[in-house]
Design goal:
This is DNA ligase (ATP). The protein has 308 residues and is of the alpha+beta class. It is built from five helices and 13 strands. Helix 1 packs across helix 2. Bound molecules: adenosine-5'-triphosphate (ATP) and manganese (II) ion (MN) (2 copies).
């Protein structure tokens, strides 16, 4: 059991409704984080993580024996699915295997019980499958890229989004990079959103080919940052804000204020262990105002704030 938790804080009562088998199983052995430790983490960040993982199709990275064991990336419902995990049918694939979603904290605890160590939602909701309500631009530094260059890329993306009337929010991936996420009012459908994200990545690569690439060709990547826009197509997923990562260090994908990037926060700085304390001391959620900042995607080619 973790000891970093303030003793005064009462345990989240609801999570008792989902029974954890083998609560002492080590999921992150080097970090001493058990299945119960994971459940405690998610109970503590529930308010913050809920908007990113409820009501959306989810892909899960499941590691029944922890991060050192066998792992599988699971997009479909399975036999013996916990009763708080919901099966949803993709309207475009009415005869296909059902997908997975959750609605509440019990559902999240069901994911913990199922050894889901990473939670990767779609960019659209099951209320509106075809129209994404966010864009995720994934910045993947190639070999020999220094961290300040990744930060600069995130800032540049933010500016480019702003030029199109969109707000950009930044989070660590919990792995090697940063994700810049823009809220959308769900109006444009997947093909238009993908085309927009591709155009933005291509423009960055064309304007600064020494620093950026927009195609996944390893040879070209050394010393460059891949502006990975492919999270923005139907059925693609990106790791959720506040999701844990199945990697040594027990890092989580952490929403940041833009000014925090100045402080040299690295991509795996925030973890299962320090995130609850961070949230307890922050005056406001670093992504406060995310949903309020949503606008519809502009028509292709149009630029906001300019005549015509
Ligand atoms: P990093 O900072 O290390 O790049 P990341 O979250 O951006 O972290 P990955 O974990 O490499 O990147 O995942 C890339 C994307 O591909 C994720 O958004 C995820 O949803 C998806 N993905 C991950 N694993 C698989 C898999 N086995 N099969 C299909 N898609 C996957
Ligand atoms: Mn990435
Ligand atoms: Mn990527």
């Amino acid at each position: 059991r973790e000891t970093a938790r303030p003793a005064a804080k009462p345990p989240a009562p609801q999570r008792r409704r989902v029974r954890l088998t083998h609560p002492d199983r080590l999921y992150w052995p080097e970090d001493g984080v058990t299945k119960e430790g994971l459940a405690d983490y998610y109970a503590e960040v529930w308010r913050q993580i809920a908007p990113w993982i409820t009501g959306r199709p989810l892909a899960l990275l499941r590691c029944p024996n922890g991060i050192a064991g066998e792992r599988f990336f699971q997009k479909h419902a399975w036999k013996g699915l916990g009763r708080h995990i919901v099966q949803v049918q993709d309207p475009r694939d009415p005869k296909g295997e059902p997908l997975i979603a959750i609605e509440d904290l019990d559902g999240l605890m069901g994911l913990v019980q199922s050894a889901a160590l990473e939670i990767h939602p779609w960019g659209s909701t099951i209320a509106d499958w075809e129209r994404p309500d966010l864009i995720t631009m994934d910045l993947d530094p190639g070999e020999a890229v220094e961290w300040p260059a990744v930060v600069a890329a995130a800032r540049e993306l933010r500016q480019r989004l702003q030029d199109h009337g969109l707000a950009g929010f930044v989070k660590t991936s919990g792995g090697k990079g940063l994700h810049v996420v823009a809220p959308l009012q769900p109006r444009a459908e997947w093909p238009a959103v993908k085309a927009f994200a591709k155009a933005m990545a291509d423009a960055m690569a064309a304007d600064d080919p020494d620093r950026y690439v927009s195609t996944i060709s390893k040879a070209k990547r050394r010393g460059r940052i891949l502006i990975d826009y492919l999270r923005n197509q139907r059925g693609a997923t990106a790791v959720a804000a506040y999701s844990t990562r199945a990697r040594p260090g027990a890092a989580v994908s952490a929403p940041l204020r833009w000014d925090e990037l100045e402080g040299g926060i690295g991509p795996a700085w925030f973890t299962i262990r320090n995130m609850p304390a961070r949230l307890a001391t922050l005056a406001a959620d670093p992504w406060d105002g995310f949903r309020a900042a949503a606008v519809p995607l502009e028509a292709p080619g149009a630029r906001r704030g300019k005549a015509g």
